[in-house]
Amino acid sequence: MGFQLENVVPWGRSLSEYIKMFDLTSDDFELSILDCAGGPASFNAEMTKRGYSVVSCDPIYQFTDAEIAQRIQDTYPIILKGVQETRDHLVWRDIASPEQLGKIRMAAMHEFLDDFPSGVATGRYITAELPNLPFDLGEFDLALCAHLLFTYSEQLSLDFHFQSVLELCRVAKEVRIFPLLVNFSNDISPWLEPVMNHLQNRGYTTEIKQVAYEFQKGGNQLLRIYSE
């Protein structure tokens, strides 16, 4: 069957959110960055405008901007309904309401859509998915992965997490994964501890770090992985 667009629920985040989610500094901006499972985020577009180097990969990039835009329109009301139903699990501080959240997400996704055709042409958007990435050993200084690993622990096996995290460590000198909670809950992923042990047994250093971003209650930590 392959990857099906009708199975995708696109939901893009902005540069300002990435900065908080991944505790990014001005020094980090100078690195070569991989945004893995980037989806329709505006991070790549905004960073590129500022002169920085980002490559994003996601299986959704095999589709055209028009196809992705249609899928965004189709799923937007469904996502907002889900947010309304789980609003008690969320922190309404920087974002005051589901309606404001929707406006922020749509603005980010429209910026992505505007950038997508030129980004594909210049190799900034690559069709690829974990656990097998088409990049060389140590090709990137920093790999970011948001709202996939640990988030979908109920759908993605522990073995998938093992393979995926090691693949990110293969292509990047440092990896940051956010958040550490299971989707639509306030529960830490059951895969977090075994993944950390798996990495440490292979010589990697792991660190759980608190960040300035919290939308899921308790979802204000990232996992940082690197080699000494």
Name the CATH superfamily classification.
Vaccinia Virus protein VP39
What string gives the helices and strands in order? HHEHEHHEEHEHEE
Mean pLDDT: 95
Strand order of the largest sheet: 3-2-1-4-5-7-6
CATH topology name, in short, is Rossmann fold
Helical residues, percent: 25-40%
Outline: globular
Count the domains: 1
The Cα radius of gyration reads: 17 Å
- Number of DSSP helical runs: 7
Q: Give the second-level CATH assignment, the architecture.
A: 3-Layer(aba) Sandwich
Sheet with most strands: 7 strands, mixed
How much of the sequence lies in strands comes to 15-25%
Number of strands: 7
Distance between the ends: 42 Å
Assign the structural class, choosing from mainly alpha, mainly beta, alpha/beta, alpha+beta, or little secondary structure. alpha/beta
CATH class: Alpha Beta
Descriptive account of the structure:
There is one protein chain. The protein has 228 residues and is α/β, with parallel strands linked by helices. The chain has one domain: Vaccinia Virus protein VP39 (Rossmann fold). It is 38% helix and 16% strand. It has a seven-stranded mixed β-sheet, sandwiched between helices. It is globular, with a radius of gyration of 17 Å. The model has no long low-confidence stretch (mean pLDDT 95).
